[in-house]
Every structure is written in structure tokens, then in C-alpha cells.
Amino acid sequence: MKTFPVVTTDPGVTRQVLADHPDLMVVAFNFSAQGCEGKLHHHPHVQSTFVKSGRFEFTVSDIKTEVGPGDSFVIPTNAVHGCVCIEPGTLIDCFTPRRDDFL
Q1: Hey, which bits of the chain come out as E strands?
Q2: Which domain covers residue 39, as residue numbers?
Q3: Which of 67, 87, 91, 94 has its CA 20 to 30 A from that of 34?
Q4: In the chain, how many domains are there?
Q5: Would you give the distance in Å from CA 58 to the centre of its chain?
Q6: Does the residue 78 lie in any domain?
Q7: In this structure, is residue 1 part of a structural domain?
Q8: How does pLDDT run across 28-74, given as a tens digit for each residue?
Q9: Is the Cβ–Cβ distance between 76 and 46 less than 8 Å?
Q10: Per DSSP, what are the bridge partners of residue 24?
Q11: Could you tell me the maximum CA-CA distance found in the chain, to the nearest angstrom?
């Protein structure tokens, strides 16, 4: 099993690929403090997000939703999305196909 590096993506936010295959990728995003952001962005991949810990305000296609441990949702292809950390925690994201830009 391959171990991937931890990469800083934004202040207080790190990313680590947990598993990958050309059709699917699993990634952990760790948010270390309240106010850290996953900036608004979009991509052609379908994304599912599982909240492992912490609390987050997610914006998906201009709709804001607060999520916490155990919540999960799907972000459609090319939907503009991002989040703000309310309580430090970890998000587990799956992408299909994989995000080659994360390798």
C-alpha cells in the first residue's frame, strides 16, 4: 500500500490522498482551526464528502449548509463549492474519476 504525503493547501488546511485508482480517489482534508477555508472552486469530478469530525459551513451552488460528524453529501460535477471550518476537524472526500492534480 502506497503512503502519500501531507500537503498544505491553505492556511490551517492539509490534504492527504488515502487511496487512488484511475476511477476513484479518497482524500482526507484536515482543518486545524475555526475560520480555515476550503476556498470556493469547481472541478469536473463528482465529489462525495463525509464529515469525520468537526463542524463546517458548506456552500454548494450558492446554498449554505452546516454539517457535522457523520454527515455526508454529494457535489455534482462543476458545481461551485467550498467550506469554512466552524470547529476543527477532518473531511473525507471521494472523487470520481480521481483528481490527477492531487498526485
Answers
A1: 6-10, 13-21, 24-31, 37-41, 46-60, 63-67, 72-75, 81-96
A2: 6-102
A3: 94
A4: 1
A5: 10
A6: yes
A7: no
A8: 999 999 999 999 999 999 999 999 999 999 999 999 999 999 999 99
A9: yes
A10: 21
A11: 39
